[in-house]
Amino acid sequence: MKKKFLVGLLSAAMVASMLTGCGKKAETTSNSTPTKAPAQETQTQEAQTTEGAATTDSSSTGDIVAKSAYHFEIVSKGFQSTYWQAVYKGASAEAEKLGVTINMVGPNSESDIADQVQMLNSAVNAKPAAIGLASLDTKAALDAITAAQSANIPIIGFDSGVPAAPEGAVFANASTDNYKAGAVAADGMYDGIKDRIASAAGPVRIGVVNQDATSESICNRGLGFIDEMITKLSADGKTAAVVGNDYYVQNVKGTVVDEKSANVIIEVRVPSQTTTELTAIEASTILNEKDTIAIFGSNQTAAEGVVTANDNLNVLGTGEGQIIGVGFDSGSVLKAAVTSGTLYGAVTQAPVSIGQKMVDLLVQVANGETVADVDTGCQWYNKDNITSEEISQNLYD
């Protein structure tokens, strides 16, 4: 997921809106001049699944105790967007709860790799008890990561983590299990289409738009959706065929049949480049098929492509003959589409939980405890629960 960031300090109004009801106002850090982020609010939120979708409980375990008043450096992919501010909210609240301090920084945008590397170098030079890192480019950051290893500073990955890091550098990751998250999207969609499938006189089509067939998060999310959909169809005595992009066709785990004999055709399309415009073209192709009953956009770009395609076709919705649309992630376009009912629902990652769990892991590794990867969970949301506190805190513009 691409998350772009604004430069400079957050305004007092933004901070106040994030921390409404808190007894303290927290300082945020500049993208260029890191300062320690003081302890923030004590209130933490759980990133829970809803509507029966099951993922790891993201609440604090309650038995984590810091052995010292540790200080941690956290280097994000950026800092100023509402997504990363939600991560910061969870991290700072957990830091106060556990009696530690954090300094969270990030570059202006996810293309500013050199800036992030400089920030990581500064983090290593600060000699913290541990470092939290969501790497933009592990290869570019290799020298800084190696320096952290040489200084015996453990690294905890978060969000997308630190892919292909040197062995032993990253002790654990706090991130979404994307395969499970894709399954949550399938579960949510199936509630809206199972009756149509059961009563269909002929084969029907479910579209899947993925922005690529290379990145770990997108591939696992797409496959998680497809495999869960096949499982649900099989449980209802229906057969499925998977067609389209070769990667997804070849890596399906479930039992599939030939397209000509399938009750449900799952068509996977991937654009040549990662843009909303190109994903919209792929989505339009699926939406124009006469047998299409549903479509899934597996991240913000793909989901916005689905919504963009519908702007011209006007076929999404829950009415008779309309196509059920499901998205992933958040953003103003997706939130508006879910609120209006254009999209049946969507799945969001849990940035507040990511921040909480990252700090938990930082404390544990600083204590010298054994740590393991943590699934920070995800949430199904629709027009009925989008404004609830447990959902809205994890939605960003």
Name the features:
disordered N terminus, 7-stranded mixed sheet, alpha/beta, 37% helix, 12 helices, 397 residues, 13 strands, 6-stranded parallel sheet
Q: How would you characterize the overall build of this protein?
A:
The two termini are 13 Å apart. This protein is of the alpha/beta class. A seven-stranded mixed β-sheet has the order 7-8-6-9-10-11-13, with helices on both faces. Strands 2-1-3-4-5-12 form a six-stranded parallel β-sheet, with helices on both faces. It has helices at 12-18, 82-98, 113-125, 142-150, 178-199, 216-235, 246-250, 276-287, 300-313, 332-340, 351-366, 389-392, and strands spanning 71-75, 101-105, 130-133, 155-158, 170-175, 204-209, 240-244, 264-269, 292-297, 324-328, 345-349, 374-375, 378-381. The protein has twelve helices and 13 strands. The model is unreliable at 1-61 (pLDDT under 50). α10 (332-340) links the parallel β10 and β11 (345-349). 37% of the residues lie in helices and 16% in strands. It is elongated and about 65 Å long. α3 (113-125) runs parallel beside α4 and α5 packs parallel to α6.
Summarize the main sheet.
7 strands, mixed
The helix-and-strand class reads alpha/beta
Count helical runs: 12
Radius of gyration: 21 Å
Shape: elongated
Query: What amount of the residues lies in strands?
Result: 15-25%
Parts with pLDDT < 50 across at least 5 consecutive residues:
1-61
SSE ordering: HEHEHEHEEHEHEHEHEHEHEHEEH
Overall residue-averaged pLDDT value:
86
- Arrangement of strands in the largest sheet: 7-8-6-9-10-11-13
Whole-Å distance between the termini? 13 Å
Instruction: Estimate the helix proportion, in percent.
Output: 25-40%
Total E-strand runs:
13
